[in-house]
Amino acid sequence: MTSITFHGGVNDIGGNKFLVEDKGVKIFMDFGMSFTDEGKFFSQFMNARTSNSLADLFALGILPNIPGMYRTDLTKHMGLGGNEETAIDAVLLTHAHVDHCKYISYLRPDIPIYCSEATKLIMQNYDETGTDQYLTLKERFQIYENKKGEISRATGDKVKIPRNIKVFDEGKKFSIDSIDVEALPVDHSVPGVDAFILHTSSGSIANTADLRFHGRRADDTEKFVQRCAESSLDLILCEGTRIAETQSTTEYDVENISTKIINETQELVICGYPIRDLDRLMSFYLAAKNSGRYLVIDLKQAYLLKLFSGSKNYSKLYPAPNDKQIKIFIPRGTWSLIDKNLDVFSERQLYMDYSGWQREFLDYPNRVDYRDITANQKDFVFYCSDFNLQNLIDVKPNPGSTYIRSLTEPFDTEMELKEEQIKNWFEHFGIIGKERDWHQVHVSGHGDGEQIKRVIDGANSKKLIPIHTHHDEYHKKWHSNVHTVNQHDKYEM
Prior knowledge:
CATH superfamily of the largest domain: Ribonuclease Z/Hydroxyacylglutathione hydrolase-like
Largest sheet: 7 strands, mixed
Shape: globular
Radius of gyration: 24 Å
Number of helices: 16
CATH architecture of the largest domain: 4-Layer Sandwich
Strand order of the largest sheet: 10-5-4-3-2-1-24
Number of strands: 24
Structural class: alpha/beta
CATH topology of the largest domain: Metallo-beta-lactamase, Chain A
Oligomer: single chain
């Protein structure tokens, strides 16, 4: 008998953690962070304690307490066991959004993590440009004897352990013991998103992942639905993030509307969009190109494009970081030496002002800094994330500049408060007025109700369980085969 236990991702948007068990084989589909569960207890100023992180998350019901699953450096230090045999055979990641993959950082490194090449590249970008631990685990609470014979805390290479990452070929079957897996690409707001069809001893299960029909890879979603119809599905886990909505604009709309706005703007165009949404980057890249301007990206985006340009599968889909239509923005470093006299501060000191992964871009011929943007504002579409608005102080946008915001509208009080802060920045520089009158040009990574119904009708599954939604009533309204579950419920096929 095959069963699925829902440790997250139901009656919620995100936090997907679905444990599939079949003939003794245990596989998680996704292992993501729930913004809702964490938001009940934590904020940006208060997180789970470093010294007690797993115990905190277990105590609050944020993570399932399954022995033999989590990092032994944490469990042993916290008195939570750690000598058990590995309890999970594999994790299948649909994609690299944190609500689907964030918590793999707590898993044992020997548990195989299956993902697409693009998902691996995005997780690599997370790791190497930040402090995450997707591909390489950094053991905590480790000690060693130093040259003086003293006991010291181990750091650096002494604590690095690579995870067991297995990159699958999209569209091809592979097996994890008794379970045959099909990983099928679908259209979403980041590349490398895969829905899964699992063929088990009790029948076939599909997991839609997050999907849509209005991006640049709509054909992939169509092919997935067709494959579901051919598979005589016994069960489909179907997302419904925007199932209550009735309309979707397209990624091409973003490109066209942004082109018009840029052409109508006489000074600097500032834009904001999800930092790893390469389809959105392409929309602004093309809009800038159509308008005779350069797209200025930040260092993290440059590094991500570098990773993708080294891939056989993706090198032709996205521009390289040295593309002639792209400029790479070099911000002030830790000592702010970028505009200082290098007769006083050496070239080496300038390079030391930046992290190792950033330094190579200092040598790119298409690098720019605030002085270039300030002097030639009509030439650029300047990407500025919500976390780097301080750069506007240096850039000093001229009167007549504009801001295109290509991020989701706020849906809770906390987001409203953050948006008010962002509004203050653009109001301060005279880019917007007292009212929030920036250009809002956004496209969701999720299909609307009509699109989701199209997936369900086309898949023609015997049973349906709504996931990644607050509105399973729409599934029930449209279909009679709906089975709803709550968190930690087990469904047996």
